[in-house]
# Entry
Amino acid sequence: MDGLDLNSGLLDKRLDGASFGARAAGMKKRPYLPDESLTTAAALAVLLGQPLLLSGLPGVGKTGAAYHIASRLFGEGHEPVRFTVTTQTSGRDLLYKFDMLGRFHDKKGRPLRDFLRFEALGRAIVAACGGGAEVLDAATDDPVIDPGRIWEIVGDTPRQPGPLLIRDLLQPRDALSDTPAPTVVLIDEIDKAPRDTPNDLLESFEAMRFTIDELGLKIGTRDAARDDAERRRSRPIVVATTNAENNLPDAFLRRCVFHEIAMPDEKRMREIVSAHLHLVDGLDPGGADALADTAFAIGTEVARRVKGSSRVPGTAEYIALARAMHASPATAAGLRQAMAGTAGAVPPDLIKALLGVLVKTADDLAKALAVFPSIALAR
# Structure
């Protein structure tokens, strides 16, 4: 058989999964090689305390940038708190969720905190305050000190006497240090949200505070004891990505550091693909470079033919093509010969299957097949 046989033996030969999140189950850490302009934009966003808004073609590395930023700022193993936006996402969804239905059906008199869960941006603001920070009454901005109200929120959980603290709102699995700490927050595909959602987050972005309406509580900044240096250092780093499917509000855009991640040039694309093959798939540097070079040669020719009528392959597709070549019977040399017009260098069905990693429509596949003259003539 010239291609790949479909049988149970494939299960023992599967390639390692790769993820920008090193803790993803069964995954290896995916390498990320940013260019200098992205690194500088990220550094400016950190220094200014503004969200970093990343644009670019799908698959170019916007999501991976947030994981890279987290590892560079806090060390390997540190990852962003991620929230993927949908067309139904509200500003509050990024801060917290309160299970009103569960509360309504509760027959055991559980404490109110059992129905509360902090989401990505809310978790980051909570971490920036520290577990020992006071929770304020939303109406008065005063600490919550009424024992009856505290008991209703916390229940019988042992706690030190005094005002309600952030740590009192957390479940044991979410225990938080009393020391304020910064967090990287990834808001993925923010352009999918309803138009008002980004604007609803402006106060949370700038003042790093929010209100839990169902409990009448305010989380955030009213802590005169903290010095300015600690406050600045613990401020969350927010990274938002957009595919430009919808326009974002001007008020939100004014508060962001914008950066468009361009498609890597030839040298960098080869480096990215080769690094993945070497570090994730275990190829020796020479073999990784050969496959990366061939994947780039095929990918650029395919991109040239589909450009204007469809989206061109992104970085992720170049990596996927190189890995598919590695997993298949095809060799880099054979594919080069097929591109030069040598009939039989690689079976046509195998070439067609490999191109399916790059292109996603029948029209684009027909155009991509023209990269291999012997196949195009046969058709």
Remarks:
- The mean pLDDT is 86.
